[in-house]
Amino acid sequence: MSKNSIFITGIGNGIGRALAVFYTQLGWKVAGIDPDGEALAELREGLDGDLLLIAGDAGREADVIDTADRLSEWLDGAPLSCLVNNAGIADPYAGPLEDLSLADFQRWIDASLTAAFLCSRACLPLLRRGTDGCIVNISSTRAVMSEPDCFGYAAAKGGLDALTHAMAVSLGPDIRVNAIRPGWIETRNWQKETEREKVDHREKDKAQHPAGRVGRPADIADTVHWLLGAGFVTGQAINVDGGMTRKMIYEH
Fold it and tell me: Which one from 23, 93, 153, 250 is the annotated catalytic residue?
């Protein structure tokens, strides 16, 4: 019997790194793509499991085609259980709209939305080897609410929400597609070693969340895993934000 398998884009740091650790500890076959070779080398050295870590850009078609070929060979005829489209640009701030170049705006779109399209398309034959494939798109609460000057990031995540329900309707029933919208998830302590930071949150940071704390990458990993078993859930975008987007905050 073949092992469960997961392919994670943006696997090198942050949420992607946490997902790699989570599923390796569960004994899954874990594959991923990331342009950060240093982060991938750390993962190879630090994780004990069946790994395929590929240096490449999930938003670049040639890299994705090559990666899918290598992924297919690595799976050796077995199905891919889950694709997590996690790649994106972490920093959402673009500056004033009048100063934003088309090239810079497009970078946010390609890193998240285009990457999700390319990787989903490339992984379909591998997901279809089984009968219960699952795609999870890592969106953001900024898909539905904004801070100033986050145009490209918000547009990419909003598009990812729409792509989620479009794919769910088209790819079901064999493949379910859902999105997770993280809120404030602290990832500075989940970076490669040269960029890792120890973080202490202020009480007012915690108080913004009805759950009483800032989010952790493990919160997203837990939600991905729940979605894998939630066979009647598809086409949904789930906020994982400690309740922050439900709390009205006034300036005093």
Answer: 153
